[in-house]
Amino acid sequence: MLVDGEWIKTFSWSRGRASFNAPRNLSAVDPTMAAAMQLAVALSAVIRGDEGEVYPLDG
Question: Which domain of life is it from (predicted)?
Answer without folding.
Answer: Bacteria
